[in-house]
Known about the structure:
GO molecular function: sugar-phosphatase activity
Pfam families: Hydrolase
Distance between the termini: 19 Å
Number of strands: 8
Protein name: Sugar-phosphatase
InterPro entries: HAD-like_sf (IPR036412), HAD-like_SPP (IPR051806), HAD-SF_hydro_IA (IPR006439), HAD_sf (IPR023214), PGP-like_dom2 (IPR023198)
Organism: Kribbella pratensis
Oligomer: single chain
CATH topology of the largest domain: Rossmann fold
Helix content: 40-55%
Amino acid sequence: MGGVREIMEIRDIRAVxxxxxxxxxDSDAVVDRSWSRWATEYGVPVADVLAIAHGxxxxxxxxxxxxxxxxxxxxxxVARVLDIxxxxxxxxxATPGALELTALLDQMGLPWAVYTSASTRLAKVRLGAVGISxxxxxxxxxVERGKPDPEGYLxxxxxxxxxxxxxxxxxxxxxxxxxxxxxxxxxxxxxxxAADIELADLHQLARLFKGxx
Length: 213
């Protein structure tokens, strides 16, 4: 999308809905470490787990990797990976531009929320570790259907009091972007993901918002 058109689109935005991991929080290394450890404990190929774990609900990943588990065993497996992730915050940091962008949105009076495939417990730990405090946080615990279903983004928009079609969803995975697109929102993609607005980092999005003032 060209720069002028991007600014025109940004001017129509009334709220921003962020993914967490990989978008606001650089947790890629800890996600890889945590799921690698879980995969080893549960006897599944690490590479296969890492290929699908990012951006997807833990239960969905575990169900695909270990369809033989009973409901109770699956719940225990989900709890196990959550414990591993919550215990490892050693190199969790804000992504480039995340703090600048969220501060700018607050300054502009533009509401924003976070919707993540993580649990509430994990989301609060990671966001707290990087100093990001959304007024609205929607997690996997708040929805019946996780990404790529749009339920979470629709819920976040509703809580902000803004129609989803007037929101911008910012994502770094295909599964998350699919959810954002299905909600009717404008989309912005990081890490080379095809979206309405394609971003190198959140500094670029901050510049677009500044240019729209």
